[in-house]
Amino acid sequence: TAEKCNEFVVGAAVSRNNVDSERDKIRLSKRVSNMLPNVQDVEKLELWNGIRSDTIDHLPMAGNIQDGSFFRKEYHCLRYGTTHALRTGVKSARYIPGLFVLTGLGSRGFQASFILADLVTSMISGRVLPMDENTLNALIPSRFQVLELMKSRVV
User: Fold this and answer.
1) Over the stretch 6-21, which tens digit does the pLDDT of each residue have?
2) pLDDT of residue 22
3) Residue in 102, 97, 90 with CA at minimum distance from that of residue 67
4) Which of 39, 47, 66, 150 makes a 20 to 30 Å CA pair with 119?
5) In which band, very low, low, confident or very high, does the pLDDT at 141 lie, cut at 50, 70 and 90?
6) How much is the pLDDT for 60?
7) 61-89 burial string, b = 16+ CB within 10 Å, else e?
8) CA pair distance 37, 39, nearest whole angstrom
9) From start to end of 53-105, where are the E strands?
10) Confidence (pTM)
């Protein structure tokens, strides 16, 4: 415990473009001093840096990886809008067999990792998926390719 060894673990700092370890160390030290005003002379023992993977929309990617060439060929109609795609019909998505991903958890990785690991293992084993279809669609890795196809709209 902190009382016995006089050590505290404090974190974290987020730097988007660069890592300034010394600046982060000073800022965290001040934060400790503010939280624990009775502690004298906070000594910075060490600093650890890690990388948190994130996605453009700040949602994790969890699921099987799409067959990119199939998506480009079969879902090109998305550029005319989703109503057109529904009218003309689209084939069921094709994915690369056995290739799954769980990444982009960002700063909430620890909290989200358990349910997302359950999701991916459920997909692999064929068990009932632990979340609704809207949530799945928000997390599936192919969402970025689908959005890219929709952005290339013909007007």
Assistant:
1) 666 766 666 666 666 6
2) 73
3) 97
4) 150
5) very high
6) 95
7) bbbbbbbeeebeeebebbbeeeeebeeee
8) 6
9) 61-66, 95-103
10) 0.69
CA–CA separation, 103 and 52 (whole Å): 10
pLDDT band at 73 (very low <50, low <70, confident <90, very high): confident
Bond from prior residue into 12 cis (ω within 30 degrees of 0)? yes
Amino acid symbol at 14: V
Separation CA 92–CA 38 (nearest Å)? 63
Residue 95: alpha-carbon gap to chain centroid: 20
Q: What count of Cα atoms within 13 Å lies in the side-chain half-sphere of residue 81?
A: 5
Q: How far is CA 106 from CA 60, 66, 77, 142, in A?
A: 8, 22, 33, 19
**Residue 121 structure tokens:** 């293992």
